[in-house]
UniProtKB/TrEMBL annotation:
Keyword Repeat: no
Protein name as it appears in the record: Transcriptional regulatory protein KdpE
Keyword vocabulary terms for this entry: Cytoplasm, DNA-binding, Phosphoprotein, Transcription, Transcription regulation, Two-component regulatory system
Molecular function (Gene Ontology), one example: phosphorelay response regulator activity
Residues spanning the signal sequence: none
PANTHER family: KDP OPERON TRANSCRIPTIONAL REGULATORY PROTEIN KDPE, REGULATOR OF RPOS
Modified residues (4-aspartylphosphate): D52
Source species of the chain: Streptomyces montanus
Role: Member of the two-component regulatory system KdpD/KdpE involved in the regulation of the kdp operon. Upon phosphorylation by KdpD, functions as a transcription regulator by direct binding to promoter regions of target genes to positively regulate their expression.
InterPro entries, per the entry: CheY-like_superfamily, OmpR/PhoB-type_DNA-bd, Sig_transdc_resp-reg_receiver, WalR-like, WH-like_DNA-bd_sf
Lineage, highest ranks first: Bacteria, Bacillati, Actinomycetota, Actinomycetes, Kitasatosporales
Chain ranges of the Response regulatory domain: 3-116
Subcellular locations according to the entry: Cytoplasm
GO biological process, one term: positive regulation of DNA-templated transcription
Length: 227
């Protein structure tokens, strides 16, 4: 049974989420503040976290950072904050998806199922899944990148983008597909996100970022990874 941790301080929304999740055979814990959420997560190890950013005791981004210190379980942010800056901050801290309030229960459940499915697919990947180029090495299981004998520090968003490309070598991944996979369906037109994050990845991984050999742009179409 998939265990979901709901972190939300609006009692009516908590009640609706718990009822709908349990009706679909999810095991559910609920926390009304960040401290309780971190304690419950450590005790019960949820498979997915649904997290409101506006908590009474701390910002939800701090909860994300606390969870990302030890778990890769998907975190779906539920928030009334709609600015791009807020969304990017949550995603960069390690959130996997961002659902803006008010939302439909069907959409939220679909996002949750997709998050669980991605995790299950990752868990069944060959434990020796290491991709090596002349410039850098990527360990898909350990989520680790090394270049020149040193670890390369990537943000969660940079890692997610690199991982999607590396799992489909030589295949053109459309801008829309990348945006949906890394940032969620609401971001399918935010191509500036891709330009910014691809530039960051190239600076960290390519010997000549202006002439990339591995992270290739197909103008107007998308990106692909070449060994």
């Amino acid at each position: 049974m998939t265990r979901v941790l709901v972190v939300e301080d609006e009692p009516q929304l908590v009640r609706a989420l718990v009822i709908n999740l349990r009706a679909r055979a999810y095991d559910v814990d609920a926390a009304a503040d960040g401290a309780t959420a971190l304690r419950l997560a450590a005790a019960h190890h949820p498979d997915v976290v649904l997290l409101d950013l506006g908590l009474p005791d701390m910002d939800g981004v701090e909860v994300i950072k606390g969870l990302r210190g030890w778990t890769r379980s998907p975190i779906l942010v539920l928030s009334a904050r709609q600015t791009s800056e807020e969304k990017v901050r949550a995603l960069d801290a390690g959130a996997d998806d961002y659902v803006t309030k008010p939302f439909s229960m069907d959409e939220l459940l679909a996002r949750l199922r997709a998050a669980v499915r991605r995790t299950e697919e990752a868990d069944t990947t060959d434990a020796t899944a290491i991709v090596t180029t002349e410039e850098f090495t990527v360990d898909l299981i350990a989520k680790r990148v090394r270049r020149g004998g040193n670890d390369v520090r990537l943000t969660p968003t940079e890692w997610h983008l690199l991982e999607v490309l590396i799992r489909h070598p030589s295949r053109l991944i459309s801008q829309k597909q990348l945006l949906q996979e890394v940032w969620g369906p609401a971001y399918q037109t935010e191509t500036n996100y891709l330009r910014v994050y691809m530039a960051q990845l190239r600076r960290k991984l390519e010997p000549d970022p202006a002439r990339p050999r591995h992270l290739i742009t197909e103008p107007g179409m998308g990106y692909r990874f070449e060994k």
